[in-house]
Amino acid sequence: MTTEPFRAAPVSAAIEVIEPRPSLDYYLVLAQHGDRGPADGPEGIVVEEFRRHHDFSTTGLDSAGWTPGTGWWSSASLSRGMRTDPDVLVRVLPTWRREAESVYRTLGGGHLPDETVLRTYFRDHQPIASAPPLRLGPAQPPAGFHERRVYRVLFAKDLRAEQVTDLQAAWQAPGDGTRASVASGHLDRGDDRFAWDLRRVGHTLAWALDVTVLLRTANAEAVGPTLSDLTNVLREHGLIPVTTERFS
């Protein structure tokens, strides 16, 4: 059983096609052995789901954890620690559902319940403060587009240098040092256009992904799946999403 962050398909492939996928996020929690740090294997799992406004900005987080012997338990405090406490961060690894199923079975849980059942264990909702979108950048979209949006997805944990290099190569757009961006990319989905920059921010939140959306279509149906895909790419590299804010 691996305890390394799961390895994705090529990053560019991960954001080319809108596909249905489980909407919950899964994490492995490594065992803690005193001052020796995390042990080699997981001791449990955490399952999470962000609540969102219609524009995909975050309003809150639901979560549940499971460990052998205690079963399912409410874990809002653990979810906060996963994003703010260095001692917890080092023990938490993002993963896919299939790996969570394997760990759950190996630890004696049997068959991992489906996502409808898992949601019934969400008993400790964590609200995430939000505000009306702030204006960041020009108010008017470029010619040919009817709306311009800017989102920021904040992440905890850190990226190794080789992971940044991997993202730069996969997104095929090197970072622009004048904008403090270490990796960037762009994508057209239908008639809508997406461009993004990954950068370090602050001292407690390690990374931010800034996504500019230019909309030609009226229903904006590609926004949510594209933000999810980009977020999942960075989860695949070990980062933990904190919130999605909208700036315009």
Count of DSSP strands: 11
Shape: globular
Q: Structural class of the helix and strand makeup? A: alpha+beta
In terms of DSSP E residues, the strand content is 25-35%
Distance between the termini: 43 Å
Q: Helices and strands, in N-to-C order? A: EEEEHHEHHEEHEEEHE
**Rg:** 18 Å
Q: pLDDT under 50 segments (min length 5)?
A: 1-21
The share of residues in helices is 10-25%
Biggest sheet, in brief?
6 strands, antiparallel
The number of distinct helices, counting runs of at least 4 residues, comes to: 6
Count of distinct structural domains: 2
Average predicted confidence as pLDDT: 84
What key attributes describe this structure?
21% helix, globular, alpha+beta, disordered N terminus, six-stranded antiparallel beta sheet, 248 residues, Alpha-D-Glucose-1,6-Bisphosphate, Chain A, domain 4, single chain
Overall description:
The chain has 248 residues and is α+β, with helices and mostly antiparallel strands. It has two domains: 13-127, no CATH class; 147-246, 2-Layer Sandwich (Alpha-D-Glucose-1,6-Bisphosphate, Chain A, domain 4), CATH 3.30.530. The chain is built from six helices and eleven strands. It has helices spanning 76-84, 86-89, 97-106, 115-119, 161-171, 223-236; strands at 25-32, 38-52, 58-67, 71-74, 92-95, 126-127, 147-156, 183-189, 192-200, 207-215, 240-246. The strands form two sheets. Strands 1, 2, 3, 4, 5 and 6 form a six-stranded antiparallel beta sheet that branches. Strands 8-9-10-7-11 form a five-stranded antiparallel beta sheet. The chain is globular, with a radius of gyration of 18 Å.
